[in-house]
Amino acid sequence: MTGRARVSRRASAAGLGALAVGLGWLGTAGAALAADIKVGEINSYSALPSFTEPYRKGWQLAVDEINAHGGIGGKTLVVVSRDDAGKPGEALTAANELVSREGVVLLAGGFFSNVGLALGDFAKQHRIVYVAGEPLTDALVWSAGNRYTFRLRPSNYMQAAMLAEEAAKLPAKTWASIAPNYEYGQSAVAVFKKLLSARRPDVTWVAEQWPTQGKIDAGPVAQAIAAAKPDAILNVEFGPDLVKLVREGDTRGLFKGRSVVSFLTGEPEYLDPLKDEAPEGWIVTGYPWQAIHTPAHDAFLKAYQDRYHDHPRLGSVVGYALIQAVAGILRKADSTDPETIVAAAEGLGFDTPFGPASFRAIDHQSTLGAFVGTTARRDGAGVMENFRYVDGAAVLPPDADVKALRPKE
Amino acid sequence: MDFVFAQFLTGLAGAASLFLVASGLSIIFGVTRVVNFAHGAFAMLGAYVAYTLTARFSGPFGFWGGILGASVLVALFGAVIEMALLRRLYRAPELFQLLATFGLTLVFEDLVVLVWGPDDLLGPRAPGLAGAVELFGQAVPSYDLLLIALGPIAFGLLWLLFHRTRFGVLVRAATQDREMVAALGVDGRWLFTAVFTLGVFMAAFGGAVQLPRDAVNHTIDLRLIVDVFVVVVIGGLGSVGGAFVASVLVSELDAFGILVLPGVSLVLVFVVMALVLVVRPFGLFGRAEAPSRAVPEPGRKPPAPLSAPARLAVAALVAATATVPLWAGDYLVTVGSEILIVAIFAASLQFIMSAGAMVSFGHAAYFGLGAYGAALAVKLLGLPMLPALACGMLLALAGAALFGWFCVRLSGVYFAMLTLAFAQIAWSVAFGWTGVTGGDNGLLGLWPDGWAASPRAFFWLCLAAAAASVALIRALVFSPFGLGLRAVRDSALRAEALGLGRAPVQWAAFALAGTVAGLAGGLFVFLKGSVFPDSLGIGTSVDGLVMVLLGGIGTVSGGVVGAVVYKALSVWLISQTDHSKLALGLVILALVLLFPAGLGGLASRLAPRRRRAAAPAVHPAVGVGGAP
Amino acid sequence: MTGRPAMDLLAVEGLAKSYGGVGAVRGVSFALAPGEVLALIGPNGAGKSTCFNMLNGQIRPDAGRIRLAGTDVTGMAPRRMAGLGVARSFQIAATFGSMTVRENVQAACLVHAGGMARPFGRADRRFRPEAERWLDHVGLLAQADRPAAELAYGDVKRLELAMALSGAPRLLLMDEPTAGMAPKERHGLMRATVDHARRNGIGLMFTEHDMDIVFTHADRVLVLSRGRLIAAGRPEAVREDPDVRATYLGGGLTFAAAPGRTEAVS
């Protein structure tokens, strides 16, 4: 009996010993840097490297520029960055670490909508400001919005509004939609439908496809849409799913003689991989980095290319502008008190490679806009042409609507 | 009608792609019983290597040479992996190979990003097959037609290989009875390596031929592995013909299903698998596995309750753990709470896996049901935390009782895959029922009640829950009920002859384990303040499996050790590096090679009065294969 | 069919089972009285195991009736048969390998007492004396703390017997009870078992390849060939039966002559 008991006891002892060791490891993780002002940054670096690598390059460029120009009120800006592995739960663990061990004054980052929402809720619970970079869901600043959460990028609604405006000019009367089967795709289609119908009551929707995100079976989907013979197609697919859809659709002639309106497809992250198979004539939102000629963008482009010998993606702009905006907030607040930081951020104007933008006081959405144009092929690569910059402020709903959407605090 | 025909062809092309990869998995499992989690990763490697080769050599020879060259290279790499890694593990509990191949998958996923960069890669189209052929007025891609031909050709070649060569005869013999091959005087090691290489070749080839249709990226592996497993199980394990029929079935159902329900892809394959398994417990063409001749690992002593001094030691350790909030900061305390929660989850899974030989690939379902039950009790009923936790446990119990009723009629891998199917169905409900569950955006604002709001109070709550759960599970294992559960595991035949039926005992255990997992899920909601569908996802189920296997499936509570090590390690690695998957994968591989009986098994290894190794029994007490 | 009590414990009529059109058991009828010892013999493939498996419900018969003390139990599941007092051992012994030898018998006692559903209390403290008494009965008490998986094959057979007896069965079915044992152990174990059965009015039916065991211990012998019963009766009568001799000779089997080592060998 004693022999057997010994085994079990040792197993248990090993378990609790390992707990102690595990906690000990974690204990070594947060050796505090003698930093002047720390900002926590969380993103899906391992889960989504194609987007987050350029994004990181962007914000690192911004940090160095800020510190080269005197930092924040003389203090050095330090960004402590963490991976969330694409999971909200891990993002919260990282947020906790950044706040309670690193002592960051503010959180920034996020790519996936659910990570952004989780961090926003964490910000509210722990009274710390969170500035979201990428997450697109409307809920982040509206139905789930809160006092401590801000967002940089033009939201789902804003992108839908930009595209719906262009789509309304098309003669097309019958439409079909292809969108990934989750909240982002669902709300993109819903908002686009609503805004297009407002301008064009004669439009009808004849088919829809909701492939699983990351697992599109592009052949059958393309075939099914083609069978409905729509005049125009709304696409919300992105990443590898987009590549597959474009290839299958092209081969099957799905896009021949049809207008296509597509979310995000003009972003280099999604357009570049398509190389010489990039679609032509699609109406898209995106970032035509080769053809933007403004002093702000020229400076950014030169600095980025000099440093990384690569062209920026949209993520680079988001990362760069995010940290510039954060620096602006902290400069103005000149305090680590969250309430002061919120007050400083509300209505704050900041410069971005796309031009000036500001955080609206009413819903904490920034007015950063996006470029709308059509895709084309040049030298074996996809580009955007006939584009224009649409300021975010122009595509946001009336203040009364926004007030109704946000929860009472 | 024309459209229907075109859609049918499109489905066939998809079927061929699935079949190429699935056949490899089926062959490997049939002979070696290795549940090769890395099979999707080998397909992904095939696509990456083919991308590089076809980019370098153009033209038809360059393209097809690149595809074949990539398949051969990856197959050789697979052979190296088999000899260097898996060969050392054939004597370990069968599922340990799953753990090893899981570690491999993590390593590959990060490595391909390091080697090929983070961008999605667009391979060339097949020379001469870039366009479409007009068939009955519908454009059908010519490459699809090639794939449609390739599926049956590959099937035919495999058939010839298995029926017309000595190697094939041996493979078929080994699929039916592994021992028999040894009796025939064949070197089993050589056969296993050859079979593994062949299987990896099929995977890599299946991945490489996707080059003209897909964008190569580091998520291909997980996307493939689940679908391919489903196909293999629907067809019947080890049956290449079954895999062929199942790929056609699944692809065609998807091709036509999306016409009726455009979002059906989310859950279709799992519904099909669940239906097939409920009607045919061994898949369409599978044969009943021989009843499990369960023999414990050599030298393993029968489990026994803790002795009095051991109890004291454990109590002291629990007390020591309770002091953590007194000296550690909020972050450590919160991580500690998370570790305790996953320890509860691991303990509940270990109960059915170790004492019941019910290896669940879908235990996350009950974790997630507990989470959503608790969250909805707060959101819809406005309940405080503790009653909400109870609601979560009730929902988990209901789910486990419902799903378990079907699952316990199956055994081995079929059981595992049916649990996975139910978990995915539950996941798709949480994911798709946006109105109630918030869909992918989850439910937010679910923080603990005031009395438990501080990290330290919540830690103590989690510690109490973990200590109670582990104690309860241990008490159950050693109770008459637990003895009955172990009895039906060891020999269902004997138990039945004594008057103890297998299904009711296992059903009760499954429901109990689900309830405890539900407690973990509920606590997780209040730890994170939110709940998302990934709490019911495959990732959560796999985490649970890894923790139990790491802790030692032959132990009673080793999973607790596994949970502590795995969770602490992954939290720490994620905070330290973007390549946490690579590091975690390497650590898992190292642990697998160093401690083939799990970390809990390490304790018995170190025990001074170790029994002499008994007969060289190679059948582990528990295995997904269930039988030799 | 003389000298048997009027009331049969087990009555089998016209039992039949076929696999893929091949009749494994074809119209077998016999009866067994309490306290009677019946041997079922026949060449390999004669249908002995199929017959046995139908008796305790392991296999559902295609045709025929099985009555246990007058109750029709045809097609009843093994666990219900066990509840009616049918115990058995298997040709390939089946025990609970991960448990100690003692726990194996304790498990059997718990099932018999209907206490297996209790989720509390320690199983290893229940029915300990009873279990040890049965282990003593079969000569395994010294090995009570060993894992069952480590037992020698003959000892596994003993353990199976202890488990079967602990449930106080009315009918005991034993499939090759002495296989794997040293020759001199065999008679001892059989004698003890047969004595126990006679004393307690247990009907005992067994199959066996060791003809010496059969002819020493059985009250009656049934001979099965190609699924049919070709002879039944007292051992000495069966031994002289020309059909039986032909069957065994025709099947390539022969009775070795030496007394005490009369075994059917291929």
Automatic annotation (TrEMBL), chain A:
- Show the Pfam families listed in the entry: Peripla_BP_6
Q: Where is the Leucine-binding protein domain?
A: 37-372
**What protein family is recorded?**
Belongs to the leucine-binding protein family.
Which GO biological process entries does UniProt record here? amino acid transport
Q: Which UniProt keywords apply?
A: Amino-acid transport, Signal, Transport
- Please name the CDD domains in this protein's record: PBP1_As_SBP-like
Q: Which PANTHER family match?
A: ABC TRANSPORTER SUBSTRATE-BINDING PROTEIN (PTHR30483:SF37), LEUCINE-SPECIFIC-BINDING PROTEIN (PTHR30483)
Q: Report the domain of life of the source organism.
A: Bacteria
**What's the protein name?**
ABC transporter substrate-binding protein
Automatic annotation (TrEMBL), chain B:
Q: Provide one Gene Ontology biological process annotation.
A: amino acid transport
Q: How does it sit in the membrane?
A: Multi-pass membrane protein
| Bilayer-spanning residue ranges | 6-27, 34-51, 63-86, 98-117, 145-162, 190-212, 224-249, 256-279, 308-328, 340-366, 386-406, 413-437, 457-485, 505-527, 547-569, 581-603
In terms of CDD domains, this protein maps to:
TM_PBP1_LivH_like (cd06582), TM_PBP1_LivM_like (cd06581)
* Lineage: superkingdom: Bacteria
Q: Which PANTHER family match?
A: ABC TRANSPORTER ATP-BINDING PROTEIN, BRANCHED-CHAIN AMINO ACID TRANSPORT SYSTEM PERMEASE PROTEIN LIVH
Q: Show the GO cellular component annotation of the record.
A: plasma membrane
What Gene Ontology molecular function terms does this protein carry?
Answer: branched-chain amino acid transmembrane transporter activity
Name it.
ABC transporter permease
- What subcellular compartments does it reside in? Cell membrane
Q: What is the lineage of its organism?
A: Bacteria, Pseudomonadati, Pseudomonadota, Alphaproteobacteria, Hyphomicrobiales
Q: What is its main location?
A: membrane
Listed InterPro entries? ABC_transp_permease, BCAA_transport_permease, LivM-like
What keywords is this UniProt entry annotated with? Answer: Amino-acid transport, Cell membrane, Membrane, Transmembrane, Transmembrane helix, Transport
Whose protein is this, by species?
Lichenibacterium ramalinae
**Family recorded in the similarity comment:** Belongs to the binding-protein-dependent transport system permease family. LivHM subfamily.
